[in-house]
Amino acid sequence: MAKKGAPRKEKRLSVHKSRNIKRKENKFTIKLKAGPHNASQSIPLGFLVRDLLEISTNNKETKIILNHEKIKIDQKIRKDIKFPVGLFDLISIEDSKENFRMVLDSKGRLKPIKTEESKATKLCKITGKKMKGKKIQLNTNDGRTFIENKTELKVGDTIKISLPEQKIIEKLAEKKGSLVYVTGGSHSGETAEIEEIIKGSINRDKTIKLKTKEKNFRTTASNVFIIGEKKAEIELR
């Protein structure tokens, strides 16, 4: 008789490229759970703890660590090994008192970097905006929702929030001169400055011209994440 419920494991060959995994080492890996991040832009918490941070050596040890409430994601305790962890999430380790930020490598794969930031904050990209009665609802890339009476924020802009309070402490507009982080394409993980914003149409996506000290290039707006005005609002290296 077939087992009830969704499968707990996933074949390594089928996981998204955002996960830096040795595909032929074993047949299965931890299956990603639905959550705040898109499946193509996140990795399971258990994979992060075991394979990237190397705090544990197997799933049993990983579950013990999580069940003892040793790991926080964005200042909230998470115990599910399948919980999705995504771009710019803040990971806090209770025992070592270390903090890590999720960023991208040059191949678009998520990786943790150690951060020494004194305050727990996070950058969130505005991905949706609509009226909710007489108020305005803003949706972000990591599944958060903010209700505002009025706002000048638009889709593509970024907000900096405090954790765990989720209070907006900074607003970063998508405009010429803004500093961005590239989240897709051949320039994944790079920072650049907006040179020009090219409006889209029914048949063409909105694109953005970017420049660095070494080169100029263009990418779609969906691959651009505003991270500051003159300097990044969070540590990225």
Task: Catalogue the unreliable spans.
Answer: none
Radius of gyration using CA atoms only: 19 Å
Can you list the strand order of the major beta sheet? 5-4-7-8-9
- Our measurement of the CA-to-CA distance between the termini, rounded to an integer number of angstroms, reads 51 Å
What is the number of strand segments?
19
* Cα shape: globular
Percent strand: 35-45%
Helix and strand element order:
EEEHHEEEEEEEEEEEEEEEE
- Major sheet size, sense and barrel closure: 5 strands, antiparallel
CATH topology of the largest domain: Structural Genomics Hypothetical 15.5 Kd Protein In mrcA-pckA Intergenic Region, Chain A
Characterize the structure shown.
By secondary structure, the protein is mainly beta. The protein folds into three domains: 9-114, RNA-binding S4 domain (Structural Genomics Hypothetical 15.5 Kd Protein In mrcA-pckA Intergenic Region, Chain A); 121-172, Ribosomal protein S4, central domain (OB fold (Dihydrolipoamide Acetyltransferase, E2P)); 179-228, Roll (SH3 type barrels). Helix content is 7%, strand content 39%. It contains two helices and 19 strands. It has helices at 45-52, 59-67; strands at 9-11, 28-30, 42-44, 71-73, 76-77, 84-86, 90-93, 98-104, 110-114, 121-132, 135-140, 145-148, 158-162, 168-172, 179-182, 191-198, 207-211, 216-220, 224-228. The strands form five sheets. It has a five-stranded antiparallel beta sheet, with no helix packed on it. A five-stranded antiparallel beta sheet has the order 12-11-10-13-14, with no helix packed on it. The chain has a five-stranded antiparallel beta sheet with strand order 18-17-16-15-19, with no helix packed on it. A hairpin with a 4-residue loop joins strand 7 (90-93) and strand 8.
